[in-house]
Structures are given as structure tokens and as C-alpha cells.
Amino acid sequence: MRILLIGLPGAGKGTQAGRLAAHLSIPHISTGDLFREHIDQGTELGQNAHTHIQAGLLVPDEVTIGVFEERLVRPDTERGFLLDGFPRSLAQAHALDGILAGSGTRLDAVLDLEIPEGQVVRRIAGRRLCRQGREHIFHIDFSPPEVAGVCDLCGGELYQREDDREATVRKRLEVYRSETAPVVDHYQAQGLVTTISAHGRVQEVLSRALDAIGQGQTDATGMSS
Ligand code: AP5
Ligand code: MG
User: Fold this and answer.
1) What Cα–Cα distance (Å) separates residue 121 from each residue in 78, 131, 166, 168?
2) Which of 11, 150, 213, 217 has the most crowded CB, counting CB atoms within 10 A?
3) Distance CA 102, CA 84 (A)
4) CA of 100 to the centre of ligand 1 (A)
5) So what's the pLDDT on residue 107?
6) Bridge partner list, 188
7) Does any ligand 1 atom lie closer than 6 A to the CB of residue 64?
8) Contact 83, 183 (CB under 8 A)
């Protein structure tokens, strides 16, 4: 399957993408994570991206599309992929549509994770990430690690993202409204969008997402889990 997860910063895209991708056995492609890898490696592209990310702005389209294409050509995407954070401008959406059309494919579904803006700041302010595993995501209140500052999954050090300061988060929200909301409209016009409430426990949101793509599990009683 080829799925796009879209939604406000802090909606839970990364949290859900890791779980969905594992469930569906497809790679999770996050342009935010790809940029953070470049930043950690100190590449020129990383330095350029860092300037934009720190300011809460989008990295320019041509750079982002290049990074995305480089990732997409790896053989693990042949059976599908789960996109998290790309496309987030109309130019990127058109580029993606063109790339997929070129290989005779298209997106199967766009899941729009909906969360009130008021909850975003609290989610982001409490987020802690693992230095060793980009998909090991914690929250000091909602999913705290057993030992403060240490990843339960691999023992790595937990840290706070530099762009998670409140002023930067406010800017990211503004950019979402102006640049990314039109991408939802673009895919809505193609009949691909399902809006999912991102409110509630992580497992509940995951069940809604799986149901939306026809992968909901049923237990012995036939109830959707
Ligand atoms: P990116 O890394 O994609 O950040 P984002 O879109 O702002 O989203 P976040 O990662 O902040 O939130 P999320 O939805 O993944 O939430 P999470 O699951 O972590 O991009 C960063 C920057 O890179 C951009 O600002 C831009 O500069 C650049 N960039 C990236 N892609 C680009 C592109 N295509 N074009 C141009 N520039 C680009 O969850 C948040 C917290 O909430 C966690 O602590 C989690 O534990 C907690 N949580 C999650 N779900 C729940 C729940 N159900 N209940 C309670 N807590 C929950
Ligand atoms: Mg994320």
C-alpha cells in the first residue's frame, strides 16, 4: 500500500507511522527524519535544512523533493510505503503525483490526523526522542519512559527536539495552515482523504487508522480492536 499520513505538528504522525509501517511491513519515510539524519551527519544539505527547521519554516521544495526521491528509489519501497511529512506543499504534492504516475502507481489513501491546535503545544512540549532510534518516541506525561531520560526500547539517551520550543511550534502551525492545508484539499478532490481523530490513546488512534485502510483486526467476538 502507498499511504500518506498528514496532520498538524504533534498530531502523532511519527508515533502512528512507526506502528502502521511495522504492521503493514512497508517502510516509513519521514522527510523530517531524513533531514535530521543529514543534520547529525553534518552534511551541507543538513546545514541548509537546519536553518529552515530551526525557524519553523519549510525546507525549500527543490531540496525536499530531491531528498525524498533519493529515498524513494531504494528497493524496499517496491511493495509500498508510508509517507510522514511529505508532501507538505502543493509543489511537493504535484511532484509526488508525477513520480507515482511515472511508475504507473498512485497513493491508495491519505489519512488526515485531526487534533485541536490547543493540544499540539502540550504534546510537543513533552515529547522526548531517542538518539539511537528515530521511531522511539516518548512523552513525559502521556507515554513516559520507565527511567527518565532513557529509552525503554534500546537504552539510548532521550532528548528534546530543537524546533520544539513554543515560539517555533507556533510558526510551524502557521506554516501548516498556509502551505500544508491546501495539500489536504488537493487529495480530498481526488477522493483519497479519510479524516481520523488523533485524540485519545495511541492504540485507539492506531485502530482508527487501520480501520480506515481496511486493515482493522477483528477479535474472536468479531469486534474491531
Ligand atoms: P517533522 O519532523 O515532520 O515535524 P512535524 O510535521 O512538525 O511533526 P512532528 O514530528 O513534530 O509531530 P508528529 O505528528 O510526528 O507527532 P509525534 O508522533 O512525534 O518536520 C520537522 C521540520 O522539518 C519541519 O518543520 C520542516 O522545517 C522540515 N520538513 C520536514 N518535511 C518537510 C517537507 N516535506 N517540506 C519542507 N520541509 C520539511 O507525537 C508528538 C508527541 O505526542 C510525542 O511525544 C508522542 O509521544 C505524543 N503522542 C502521540 N500520539 C499521542 C496520543 N494519541 N496521545 C497522547 N500523546 C501522544
Ligand atoms: Mg514526526
Assistant:
1) 36, 22, 7, 10
2) 11
3) 21
4) 24
5) 97
6) none
7) yes
8) no
Query: For residue 164, what pLDDT is reported?
Result: 94
Distance CA 144, CA 166 (A): 20
Amino acid letter, 24: L
Closest by CA to 209, choosing from 34, 1, 9, is 1
Written as nine digits, the cell of 184 is 489536504
pLDDT at 72: 96
Model-level pTM? 0.93
**Under a CB-based contact definition with an 8 Å cutoff, are residues 38 and 144 in contact?**
no
Name the residues annotated as catalytic.
13, 88, 127, 161, 172
Instruction: Locate 166 and state its grid cell.
Output: 513554543
Question: What is the whole-number distance in angstroms between the Cα of residue 125 and the centre of ligand 2?
Answer: 13
pLDDT given for residue 217 in this prediction: 72
Question: What's the CATH fold of domain 2-115+180-212?
Answer: Rossmann fold (3.40.50)
Residues in the chain with pLDDT < 70? 218-225
Question: Residues for the chain: how many in total?
Answer: 225
pLDDT tens, residue by residue, 105-131? 999 999 999 999 889 989 999 999 999
Instruction: Tell me, rounded to whole angstroms, the distance of Cα 157 from its chain centroid.
Output: 22
Specify the ligand 1 atom closest to the Cα of 52. 27
CA distance 139 to 128: 6
* Cα–Cα distance list, 195 to 87, 96, 169 (Å): 17, 21, 22
